[in-house]
Amino acid sequence: MISFKQLPLEAKAAVAAGVIFFSMMLSRSYLAEQLELRTRRWLLRLQMALFANALMLIGSLHVWRSTVTTFSRSSAASSFCFMPWKIAVFMFLALAHSSFFTLLFLVAEEPYFFSLAAYTCLGAYIILIFFLFTLGSVEQAYKFLAGRGTKAVTGNKNSRTAMKPVLAVMLTVVLTVVGLLNASRPPTVNSVEVPVHKLPSTMNNLKVVLLSDIHLGPTVGKTKLAMIVRMVKALKPDITVIVGDLTDSEAEIIRPAVEPLGELNSPLGTYFVTGNHEYYTSDVSNWFELLKSFNIRPLHNENVKIVSPKSTDDWFCLAGVDDIEADVLRYSGHGMDLKKALRDCSSERAIVLLAHQPIAAKWALQERPDINLILSGHTHGGQMFPLNAGAYFLNPFFVGLYKVGQNTFVYVSPGTMYFGIPMRLGSRAEITEIILRSP
């Protein structure tokens, strides 16, 4: 029987990831109610950081062998450039691994340079892993299809082996620069007209500005939020809604960065629902109080009547549900409760629901098909290549406007900023201007 010491490094990393994952499930199931809130918050974040790093270690070993070990066996190892290259690869991997720990130690009003560098390396790491795997798969497929014919060109084996990591690194550098430049631009303003069944005629052309996935934390701070607020105010919305993942940190730590939200002054109100990242902070109650101090109303499985400025008899129901991650984390007093959220929302009136995750939108429509419009986020439009494909297949609604049945629409925001990695590839940050049309 093989002992743990005899296992290859990749297998040891996989075992470590499994142990950490098991401890996460144990903490969620049996320790959630017994631990102090602050302790639970730190334990959850530490476990998530260690789990991600254990999984990344498998990829990092592959990166090291592909970009360093491969060349150490060739004449390139004697070059004066090899040692600086070796150090650069090591620093790159170290920064990528450290990115998850910045949530614990490096969150302030504005991002630290170290956090930006670490998360940039994480984004480049993901791209590099993808290209190394893809090019390696293509190489193996070529060898398989070529069969014995490959023996005729064995003299070029070393050059072909070196070409794969060189090409992967070049593609990674190019896409990283493109992704950084794309994410550094202000969000685009996307105007969408949505016909809302049973919307009163006096509320025709009502303007709702949708924000989602701002992710205040290690790489998004006060300056970017202030820019978003200025753009929203310029649109002069009747209502502003924030559909989750506003933050990745505790309210007390990042309070100064949130102050620009106090400038939002939509006449019919500004509303907020939780996303999964709010529950990762384990600080939802404090966030609710902070948002209320800025005149932003959290919809905690509840609803409000949005009354027409032209007639008090005309109104529609705006409801919001807690994010479904609250149930997974067993977050006390929270969890998606559609019946509670839609209490007193009659099907005789238009119903607009705020639900962070598209899967929650799907569940809501299965239970209440009379909902007219659901506004969601969460997917980021995949945020960056090659994660786009995974986000597309994991969500029932990916990004943009969807029509469900005869009188229901779902709009999924691609996110107003980004999570951690300051890059966008194959997606664009967006502030959505939704114009409600009466039939």
TrEMBL record:
**A Pfam family hit:** Metallophos
A GO MF term:
hydrolase activity
- Per the database record, which ranges form the Calcineurin-like phosphoesterase domain? 206-381
> Where are its TM segments located?
12-30, 42-64, 85-106, 112-135, 166-183
Q: Does this entry carry the keyword Transmembrane helix?
A: yes
Q: Which UniProt keywords apply?
A: Membrane, Transmembrane, Transmembrane helix
UniProt KW Transmembrane keyword:
yes
The record's CDD domains line, in alphabetical order, gives: MPP_YkuE_C (cd07385)
- The protein, known as: TMPPE metallophosphoesterase
